[in-house]
Structures are given as C-alpha cells and as structure tokens.
Amino acid sequence: MNVEKGLLYTKDHEWVKVEGDTAYIGIADFAQSNLGDIVYVELPEEDDEVSAKDSIASVESVKAAAEVFSPVDGTVVEINEDLDDDPGLLNKAPYEHWIAKVELSDKSQLDELMNDAEYTDFLKEA
Amino acid sequence: MSAKKTPLYDRHIAAGGNVVDYAGWMLPVDYVGLKEEHKAVRENVGLFDVSHMGEFDVKGKEALKFLNYVCSNDFSKAADGQIVYTMLCNENGGIIDDLLVYKYNNEHFLMVPNAANTEKDYNHLIKYVKDYDVEFNNISDNVGEVAIQGPNSQKVLQKLVDFDLDQIKYYHFVDDIDYKGHKLLISRTGYTGEDGFEVYTTPEGIQQVWDDLLEIGKEFELQLCGLGCRDTLRFEASMPLYGNEMGDDISPLEAGLKFAVKFDKDDFIGKAALEKELAEGPKRKIIGLEMEDKRIPRHGYEIQKDGKKIGVITTGYLSPTLNRRLANVLIDIDEAVIGNEVDVIVRNKVSKAKIISKKFMK
C-alpha cells in the first residue's frame, strides 16, 4: 500500500496536506483500494463550516458508500470539481486529487494526526 | 479467524483475489475489479466459486410429500431432472429462504439453500422431517460448487466434459457425469441473468474442475469473478436476494414471487396466511426506482412522500451495464405505481427519484 511522504493521515484513511492555513483533504491509497472502482464523489459545498470528525464528503464505489471525515475544524474554501466528472481519479492517483480545501481554524489539531511513518505502522497493525 | 474456507480458498489467494469474510465464508469480493468482472460475465464468460452454498439431500418414499408441505412451490408437476425455484415460508407467510430444488425423481431431491441460511433452514426443516418417511441430510460440507456464467460458458465447459451440454435445458440438470474419476452434477442455472452452468462435486473434485477450467479458459479469456459482481449482475437481471428483497417479514406476494407459490396444492407451511394476504391484497410491493440526480441509492435508504416514510431501498447500485442509478424498493402498495415521483433520503438530504419497472434490462 502506497503511503505518500510528507502528508498527515487519520485513522479513517484520509490524508491532509498543509500549506499555510489551508488543509487539502483526500483519501489514502488504502481507502481507494478497499473501495474498488469509485463511481461517485459527493462533494461538500464551498463556505461549509466543518468540525473535525464531521462527514464532509462521500466516496462511492459500485458496491458501497464511504464517508470522508474532516480531520480538522474550518471552512471549506474550494472543492475539487474534477471529481464530479471523473470520480475514478481517486483510484488512479489518490494523492494527486484532493477532495476539499479547508481553511484551518485551529492548527493545533494537526498535532493529533499521524505522519507518514506513523501511518505506515498503523497500516501494518490493522 | 472463524470464517470457513471453501475447497478453493488457497486458489483465490494464489490468484490474487481480494478475499474477505462474507457471511461467515472467506471468499473473494473481486480479483481485478468488480466492473471488469461484471462485464466479462455479460459479454464473455466468468467463473465463480459458490462452494459456500448449502446442500440438503432428501430421499425416501415421502420425499415429494415432505417438500410439497415445507416449500411454497409444487414439485409434483416437475419432470425428473428439472430444477424448481421455491420459497420456504414461515406460518405468517414470511420468507425463511429462497432456494433451488433439484428433482431426481419423486423419492429423491437435492435442496440448495443460501449459504447464510443453511443452518437456519436445516433447523427449521428438521422439525418436520420426523412426520415423513424420508432421510434428510445436510451434505453441505461434502460438496464443492462452481458457477460458470456468460454467453460463452457452454463453449468452455464443453471442452471439459465428454457430455453433450445441449442436452441440458435451462433449469435442468444431469448427474453422474464422470470426470477424471470425479462424479459431476451439472445444471444449467446461475444467478447472473446470463446463460450458464453450475457444477457440483466433492471438495477434491471441485479443485480439479477449477484448475482445468482455468487452463481451458485461457483460450476464451475466461475471467475469475468474485461475489461483488455476482450481486450487481443478479440485481440488473431483476433477481431478488435474500436479506434484501426477501426476509422473514416479507412475503412472496410482496416480493413479486407469487409464481413460486402454488395455492392449488395441498396444505403447506404459510398457506393460510398467504391466502388471506392474497384475498386482501398485499400492502407493500417490491418495485424499481431510478434516481433523478447523481446520488446512488443504497440498501436501507428511506423513501418518503411529502415527508412521510413510505418505504425503503432493498438494493441499489450505479448499474455497471446500464450506467443508471437504479434500485429495488419495498414500498406501500398505493405508491408502487410506475411514474410515481418520490423522495429518497441520502445522507440527510432529499433526492428526487421515480418509480419504474424493476425489469431494468428489458
């Protein structure tokens, strides 16, 4: 299972890339691989206020729907509309295609996420 | 891990199958991807391990009488070598299971229950066996089964066996086909909506059949298939699934399975309740639904009209063949009208949908 270096991860297999006060949120390789062929991504709306552990999106494969939980509190500032047209991008390159950009309201929450090494260990234990 | 393994478990792992615990059995969801496997069965040929299915052998002078009492269908009219689809009902007319019954003759039958229901069915049936002159045996552990499905399934299977498969008509079977010292039962059945066959033999025999079908199948680009596409295939083909379209609290009349209930035979379990329901008319019905936005309907989602619950989705998918967002729904009979507009509650949001025929492929 591919774990991209330099990202932060949740136990629910979301990844977070931080640039300044903005968090890009996507799903890890493990998540897309478990889901199989992704056929629909329900995106949040811009300006949505989200809290950590809130569902911000749903990623659906042929067989199941999976929630994507926000790892942080903040405001959705942009959504990746490419996923509307081609949800399979998440299968092809899960770390290249973020789902939503969230403006962080509490950067200290990032300390609770795993770095790539910790996430790799987490996957081994799971 | 307590999940059971089929005789083909090691082969699934070796072939790179995505093996998971499926209703107590370690079986592959897919090998190369659900969509690709689904397409292979619709257009070419796919091979499934269905060894988890149960088998009950029913033998004796009163085998026919016993089955006609415990099942909803009538086996007296079936020919020897014919297979009959039936329900086991409870006294309230709810469905305990749906299964296939293979008729050797009036004194010998093979029942094939759903894997997850095998124990439940056995415990139900064993209560009635003592009143009949029959031997009733759960032989599930001694039987392996594969399904070869798709328009090219006959071509592939014909290369395996020295028996003219044209002689097996739809929903019929032939037993005692000798294959490398193994005795095969071959039926022209399956749960995909395509032409196809199911092969039953011993656990050792099924390993031989599997290996040889894979070898023969190379020429035909035979695809190994997991349980994921089995469900999308059967759904598109409007075949109901136990636990979705059927359950202990859903009757065959509600599920659209009246054809498998024979009211004109002698008494059977559930008859009185079903006759009453027939006279009054069922209160709910399974029918089709199509979403009018991009959301995908899923099992368990609530259906509403004017904010009031009128039903539930029993199965829903983005259909791989049709690329439409389709579902089976169990809804109030008054709302089960083709063209009716309803709301589906998806993640606390309302999506518009329309009631359609459940015969999606037609």
UniProtKB/TrEMBL annotation, chain A:
This is Glycine cleavage system protein GcvH. The gene is gcvH.
UniProtKB/TrEMBL annotation, chain B:
Keywords: Transferase. It comes from the Bacteria. The keyword Transferase applies. Its EC number is 2.1.2.10. This is Glycine cleavage system aminomethyltransferase GcvT.
